[in-house]
Write a structure and sequence with these properties.
Layout (H helix, E strand, L loop, with lengths): L1 H9 L7 H12 L7 H12 L1 H11 L10 H16 L7 H15 L4 H15 L28 E13 L2 E9 L4 E2 L1 E4 L6 H13 L3 E16 L3 E14 L12 E8 L13 H13 L6
Parallel strand pairs: 1-6
Antiparallel strand pairs: 1-2, 1-4, 2-3, 2-7, 5-6
Helix pairs in contact: 1-2, 1-5, 3-5, 4-5, 5-6, 5-7, 6-7
């Protein structure tokens, strides 16, 4: 409660008296924690990352503009997402951060706040690859089994993506997009109902990063359950291809989910923050290109 009250009091931009406000709230709502360094560090991080986190909220809950979300719910989301995306996972495991945010929502929010917070944080958690999935919150009964999702009953959304490569002089480069979660990933997009998967992928890559590609080979498939705070669960099926294009500067489509796009040499890739399920696709692509007698630098 002190954290929520303090962030709410600092809206929209007045952070100058943050420490004094937080101390006052701690003294009133949580006596004995006035000198807790973790609380102050978390508050500073939440305010520092607010713009980025708000953009992520808008992506995860596109039907709910920030100013339409109740002040309590949006500040619980800010705290939960800051811990989930930017916190020390050894200190606060991802699932613990989510569960704590849900408990805050149930305690201080409205009738549907817990469900809403769970939907938004769950969607983001899925997008970042479910880190620490096996870690269980201490608040949760270890004997409690999570309900299995009936995949057969879920609506399906098809997506097509590609690892695009090009030749620039003697160098072979790979195109990546940077998402608002801080990861470099492959360009992809929704394939329309009845649309050929390759044709849809070609269209989406053109729209998202401005490249005309030719698909060479299928790299693999991935599927996951995504949770929309209002629409519920959807089974997303993604097919990835290896594709080639002429070299040109990438032109990123304006989108709430992406904030960057660029070409990389192969030697640069190990330094990038990349989702685990993308790494095998990159390895397979490099193997295919190498077999075609192309030198990768």
């Amino acid at each position: 409660m002190p954290a929520i009250a303090t962030i709410s009091a600092s809206e929209p931009n007045d952070n100058t008296k943050l420490k004094e406000t937080l101390k006052r709230n701690l003294k009133e709502f949580a006596p004995g924690l006035e000198d807790d360094a973790f609380v102050f560090t978390l508050m500073e991080q939440v305010l520092k990352k607010r713009a980025t986190v708000d953009e992520i909220i808008e992506k995860a809950a596109p039907d709910w503009p920030i100013d339409k979300i109740s002040i309590v719910d949006r500040n619980i989301l800010r705290i939960g997402l800051t811990e989930l995306l930017f916190g020390d996972r050894k200190e606060v495991p991802p699932k613990v951060a989510i569960n704590e945010a849900i408990e805050l929502a149930k305690t201080f929010g409205g009738e549907n706040s817990g469900k809403f917070i769970n939907g938004v944080l769950g969607a983001v958690y899925k997008e970042i690859g479910e880190p620490g999935k096996e870690q269980v919150s201490k608040r949760k009964n270890p004997e409690e089994k999570e309900k299995k999702v009936d995949l057969a009953g879920l609506p399906v959304e098809s997506l097509g993506g590609a690892l695009v490569y090009t030749k620039n002089g003697e160098d072979i480069l790979f195109a990546f997009v940077h998402d608002v979660f801080g990861y470099w990933t492959l360009s992809k997009g929704k394939v329309e109902a009845g649309e050929d998967i390759q044709a849809g992928t070609i269209r989406e890559i053109k729209e998202e990063i401005g490249l005309d590609i030719s698909i060479e080979e299928k790299l693999g498939e991935n599927e996951y359950v995504a949770t929309h705070p209002a629409k519920g669960k959807t089974l997303k099926k993604v097919v990835y291809f290896l594709a080639k294009s002429e070299y040109k500067e990438l032109a990123l489509e304006k989108s709430g989910g992406l904030d960057g796009a660029r070409w990389f040499h192969l030697r640069e890739l190990p330094e990038l923050r990349i989702y685990n399920d993308i790494i095998p696709l990159i390895s397979k692509a490099v193997e295919i290109i190498s077999k075609n007698n192309k030198v990768i630098k």
